[in-house]
C-alpha cells in the first residue's frame, strides 16, 4: 500500500474534518489504551479492534491516520506494525506528542508506564489514585496465594506472563516461549514435572507439556482487554486471577 503523504492528510482534513476533544488521546491498541486509562486519560480512542488476538499486527487505515494526525497524544509501545506508517506519514513537523510505554503487566512496570503517561497529560493525581487501587489488588491477590504455596512452588511460566507472575511472588522453575518449545525444553519439563503451567492466551505454546504421564494444571492468562468482555487493565488482572483460582481451589 502506498505511503500517506502530508498532502493527502491535508485533503483529508478539509474533506472530513473530525472534531476531537481539547486533549484527545489515541492508543494503538487495547493494551496501550488500558495503561492510558489508568493514567487518567478520558475517552481514549483505540485503533486496533478489541477482538483481535494479535493487535500489534493491525494495519492502520487512511481514515484512522487522519484521526492520529489530529490528535494531541498517541500512546504506543513500539512493536505495532502501524508505527512505521504513522511516523512516515506525519513527518518531523507534526505537533502530535508520542508517548512510548512498556506494556508488561508487572506491578512495577504498570506504575512506571502509567506515570510516564500521566506526567505528559498532567493527570498525576488521578493516576496515583488508580495505582493505589492496583496495589491493593495485588496485595490481596498475594495474600490469597499464600495459602497455595505447595502448587505455586512448582510452576513454569510463559515469557509474556512472567511479569505479573513475578509481582505475585511466583518464582518459576522455567520460563518458556514465546516460540514453540524445543526438544530440549520438552525434556527439561519432563524433568521438572511442574504442578502448574501459566501459558499465554494470545500465543499459547504449552500444549506439548501436557503429554506427561501426570498432566499438570494449566491456565492461560491474557495480556490485554478484549477477551470475555474485559475492557480495562484491572479487568485483565481480575480475569487472570479467576483463571488461577479455578485450578487452585
Automatic annotation (TrEMBL):
Keywords: Signal
Signal sequence interval, chain numbering: 1-27
Keyword hit for Signal: yes
SUPFAM superfamilies: Helical backbone' metal receptor
Designated name of the protein: ABC transporter substrate-binding protein
Source organism: Oceanispirochaeta crateris
Species lineage: Bacteria, Pseudomonadati, Spirochaetota, Spirochaetia, Spirochaetales
Amino acid at each position: 500500500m502506498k505511503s500517506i503523504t502530508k498532502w493527502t492528510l491535508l485533503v483529508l482534513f478539509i474533506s472530513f474534518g473530525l472534531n476531537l476533544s481539547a486533549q484527545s488521546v489515541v492508543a494503538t491498541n487495547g493494551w496501550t489504551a488500558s495503561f492510558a486509562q489508568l493514567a487518567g486519560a478520558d475517552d481514549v480512542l483505540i485503533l486496533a479492534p478489541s477482538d483481535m488476538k494479535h493487535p500489534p499486527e493491525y494495519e492502520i487505515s487512511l481514515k484512522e491516520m487522519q484521526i492520529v494526525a489530529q490528535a494531541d497524544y498517541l500512546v504506543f509501545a513500539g512493536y505495532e506494525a502501524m508505527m512505521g506508517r504513522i511516523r512516515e506519514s506525519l513527518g518531523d513537523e507534526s505537533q502530535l506528542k508520542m508517548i512510548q510505554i512498556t506494556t508488561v503487566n508487572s506491578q512495577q512496570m504498570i506504575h512506571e508506564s502509567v506515570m510516564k503517561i500521566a506526567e505528559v497529560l498532567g493527570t498525576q493525581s488521578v493516576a496515583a489514585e488508580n495505582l493505589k487501587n492496583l496495589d491493593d489488588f495485588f496485595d490481596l491477590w498475594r495474600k490469597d496465594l499464600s495459602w497455595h504455596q505447595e502448587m505455586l512452588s512448582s510452576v513454569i511460566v510463559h515469557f509474556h506472563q512472567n511479569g505479573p507472575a513475578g509481582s505475585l511472588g511466583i518464582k518459576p522453575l522455567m520460563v518458556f516461549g514465546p516460540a514453540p518449545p524445543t526438544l530440549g525444553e520438552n525434556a527439561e519439563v519432563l524433568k521438572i514435572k511442574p504442578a502448574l503451567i501459566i501459558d499465554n492466551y494470545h500465543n499459547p505454546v504449552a500444549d506439548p507439556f501436557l503429554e506427561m504421564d501426570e498432566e499438570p494444571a494449566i491456565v492461560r492468562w491474557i495480556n490485554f482487554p478484549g477477551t470475555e468482555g474485559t475492557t480495562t487493565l484491572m479487568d485483565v488482572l481480575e480475569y487472570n486471577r479467576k483463571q488461577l483460582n479455578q485450578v487452585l481451589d
